[in-house]
Amino acid sequence: MQRLQVAPTVRIRAEGYEAIISPSAGARLLKLTRSGNNQRMDCVVPFDEHIASIDAHQWPKAGAFVMLPFTNRLDPAAFEWQGRKIKLHNGSNTGQGLHGFGHRRDWTVSETSDLHIALELNHAAACAEWPWTFKARLNYKLGASGLSVALSVCNTDATTMPVSLGWHPFIPFSNSETTKNNSLRFTASHMHDIGLDGLGPALLSEDIAANQTFALDGKTASTTAFENFGGEVDVSLEKNLRLKLTSQHAPHLLVHRPPKLPFVCIEPVGSLPGSFKNYTKAQSNRELRLDPGEWRHLVCNLG
Q: Residue 268's closest CA among 157, 149, 179?
């Protein structure tokens, strides 16, 4: 069983915000708080500060992590790419690929200051988890609007590879049956209910549709994927607290509201769930294909 060490951690502060990051535990965000008006508010579900290590495949439902080189569930962990059959080994008992593997790696800190941290990850094709080489860069920075998370991946291989990037924060949501305040609001063009396990089909729509506003309450358990995400989610919480999550370069959004648990996952993603198996060649070329030497980016902000 692979375990990830949480310590040492890096703490950054600015504009009333404080964030704690663990480079060795997948460059995870462990905590993001905002202090003001004699209040200290959690913007993500905080990690238990006494946790020394975590199971790489059964991590605590807290904090936030980046997803690369693929997003959401890949069940089984195999797909075909440009006529080549790819079978991935990730050590999971389920046989699923889950959110890629960047969140299970030890990242190198390349730069740090009071308000930011930059990390790097280099992947070799000899690894059974992914048969292409790539390098990744991740920057956390605090400012007046909250935490900026900038993820970039470059294909350093000699051949084309598929890539989908995402961010996976656990946002505190009350699990009380009487709650009235928890809700999400954003725009998108299409919605796909993919089942609580996240394994249902989410096929890209052929028709062109205008974006509409979606409003989700805090009570209904579901896992839903949304096409053509407008890039901004308004999150209403208890105690008159509102969060805003924004993203750039994320054409889609996945929202997972588990039953009877006090959080919601709001995940800007580069492709719909199941894209490695379900996309047509044209769709794969548009959203997944990354040629040698090319970069792909994702920028999110929460505050």
A: 149
